Amino acid sequence: MPTPRMTMSKIREIVRLHGLALSKLKIARATGVSLGAVCQTLKRLRSLSQGASELLALDDVALAAVFSPPSPAVVPASRYVIPDAPALHQEMKRDGVTLTLLWEEYRDAHGERADGYTQFCAYYREFRRRLKRSLRQTDVAGGKCFTDYAGSTVGVVDARTGVIRQAQIFVGVLGASNYTYCEATWTQGLRDWIGSHTRMLTFFQGVSRIIVPDNLLCGAPHKT
Question: What is the mean pLDDT of residues 196-206?
Fold first, then answer.
């Protein structure tokens, strides 16, 4: 659509010159209208059923109605369903759940009363901002290495039998750099746990001052 400042005489001239097969650039130079405004006017022209001669025969009021149709009705803000941010926060704790997936479910449930994705995310971010702040820790290089097993397992297929066996995923991360080591083992038992740490330190080519396992029972001291 043309900009509000464009007069009907300018629109008429753009339509006329377009009918003479002039390029958009030549039309812009001839009319003194920006190239972008010419492109928008011609885009609107292509969407109309009337030809150039029919449009030029219209008076200014009718021509303005054609090139500046009324804006579509806006749904009042009160009609929108506000997302349940606390419920979204709980859902986000589940494996594989994303804001995109939650928004699609929200949109399917509320149809025209659903907010757009950007506003939906804004509601959730504002809720997260108001939550109790957690303590941030600053790690120095070589200070700490954090180790744990990922919550999800990975299926490994035996090429001979086709049997699928679930493997545990060990992860080690250096606190200062987030440099990460990851491997799969069959169990979270003590033998695999120690072996994973040994291979991790070999991969890092060094040992941090402290290794912090995430409350893993096999790594706790055993009573004799």
Answer: 95
Beta strands at 164-174 and 180-185: parallel, antiparallel or unpaired:
antiparallel
Cα(206)–Cα(109) distance, integer angstroms = 53
Q: Which two tokens stand for residue 28?
A: 């812009």
pLDDT in tens, 139-183: 888 899 999 998 788 899 988 888 999 999 999 999 888 899 999
Q: Are 31 and 14 in contact (CB under 8 A)?
A: yes
Q: In degrees, to the nearest 5, what angle opens at C-alpha 17 toward C-alphas 13 and 21?
A: 165
Using the predicted structure, report yes or no on whether residue 220 has a pLDDT greater than 60: no
Full-prediction pTM beyond 0.70? no
The DSSP result for 176-215, as a single string, is TT--EEEEEES--SHHHHHHHHHHHHHHHTS--SEEEE-S
Residue 62, class by beta-carbon neighbours within 10 Å (0-12 exposed, 13-18 middle, 19+ buried)? exposed
Segment 58-90, tens digit of pLDDT:
777 777 777 765 555 554 555 788 888 888 888
Q: Which residues pair with 171 in a beta bridge?
A: 148, 182
How far CA 135 is from CA of 23, 25, 109, 176, in Å, comes to: 63, 59, 37, 16
Cβ proximity of 166 and 153 under 8 Å:
yes
**Nearest Cα to 51, choosing from 28, 10, 19?**
19
